[in-house]
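Now read the record:
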Amino acid sequence: MWYYLTQMKIRDGKIVISCGDRPGLEKTQSRLKSQAGLKLEPRGETETRELIVRNVFGYNTEADIIESLKCQNQKLWRDLDPAHFRVKEVYRRKARNPHQVHVVLQVSPQVWRKLTEAGTIYIDIQGLTAEDQSPLVQCTRCLGYGHGRRNCKETVDLCSHCGGGHDRTKCPSRVNGRPPVCRNCDRAGFQEAGHNAFSGDCPIRRKWDGIARSS
């Protein structure tokens, strides 16, 4: 078993292999070079991943966040090649607290691994956590995948709790304490549909998430 591999997927007729660190990459290259008929091609330094840091104080600019990540979390970067420290803010989401935001960052695979495994990271005066952010787009109107509500053909918002034509906050099933029914799984005939349509446990969402990550 190659425990140092983090991801393998097929793209354009080729197997794309990702490793968590330089030693893992070198071990992989060494083993593959011994296989006759295989051709290795480096992917370069352009691969990126996304992560989300929730409840960041909104007064922090992109430059502030990057500087805090670099200077206040120096122990994370001790064995990191400086060329791999690539961080870029993609967008922000509103948080419940009007003074805070959820920040989505695009980073190198090496930085993604360091931050998601760190537990606590420090930005300004806050101790926060970084979580993986899926590239999957799920519509908040029809609950389908591959498009947002701006491009949705539905005219009525569907409830993520029961799939009905009403807002989740006004859902009678939710208000009365009845369990959720995922609209997508229910329509697909799955027996295990007892979850919210946005749940990470949804098998259909997991399938589309895998497709989004491999594209």
